[in-house]
What we know:
Blueprint: H1 2-9, H2 17-42, H3 53-94, H4 113-160, H5 167-198, E1 207-210, H6 211-220, H7 223-228, E2 232-236, E3 242-245, H8 247-264, E4 270-277, E5 281-288, H9 295-298, H10 320-330, E6 334-340, E7 357-365
Parallel strand pairs: 2-4
Antiparallel strand pairs: 1-3, 4-5, 5-7, 6-7
Helix pairs in contact: 2-3, 4-5, 5-10, 6-8, 8-10
Amino acid sequence: MKRKQRSKRVKRGIFGIKSYIVVFLGVFSGTALCVFLIFRGLKPNLSLLHIDKMEILGDIFLISLGYTLIVLIYRGVTIENPTRRILDATEQIGKGDFSVNIKPINKGGSTNEYDVIIDNLNKMVTELGTIETMRTDFVANVSHELKTPLSVVQNYCILLQNPDITGEERTQYVKSITEATKRLTELINNILKLNKLENQQIFPEFSTVNLTESLCESILLFEKEWDSRNIDLQTDIPDDIFLRGDGELLSLVWTNLLSNALKFTPDGGTVAVRVKAYPKSITVSVSDSGCGIPPEALLHIFEKFYQADKSHSSQGNGLGLALVKRVVDIHGGKIAVSSNPVRYTDDGSPDDTVAHGTTFSVTLFKG
């Protein structure tokens, strides 16, 4: 069935019968010409040699036919079969099947051009499969993240239609709707920013940035939260540290890291922002005394929509760290994370005698 479908698409095959007829005629003509030249030069007496001219033509025919069969088998094994395997694979890929894996022609160290093509094709299919999985997950995650605040807005709007609710309840419902729409706006803005960054639609405007001022401005944005939750803010930021970068994008890094630190730090906890300047680089670290991140989650912490602690999912959308990673990459820097998850005693309560928390370290290079 597959051969019939393929033959309908391929209107003129490069391995058709015509090509082998051409090979046969070429060999036959060449052999006949050689025999003719030999006999013409030597001028043997065919009657004495008991050789009939028709026998000579028959032998030439058999030689040509045998050579054509050899060419047919050789081309079939070395060219036709690999080409058809690649053709079948590309047809499957064209239909959206990214599970295709073509076996190499030659096993071992000996490879030819077909093996290289097949290897490149397999790598391409693997990458396409990964991208398709990421796309599917992205759509599913976006749908889920949009659905939650929209459901909140819808439910509270229905409750607001009740004429019997008190003024206090009305105020609370409106506050909940405002928070849901704020989260929805933040989600959409983050998606747009991340999409533009990944598609290189945002062009960084590099200039001399006062890192000290940038960090202090980001810290002040959360001043009310520090005070209301009695969080101990520790800072070690030297005066007037300058570097080359995009000030607006770098502010996005600091606000996201600080927001994360606040989100996971309990009331009365500690958040520390420290800056260390080296001859060729600057490292900014943001630490918290929160619950920490499990080792298995550290591998995925910068992936879009990934949230290691689902209990805080209502406070974020899993895009902040993906944005941070992208901005740091654009600046040619590095970001690292280390964490000590909270430990529990035998009775199930947190062991406060063992330090726990998470530290994000951003290294930016001068110049």
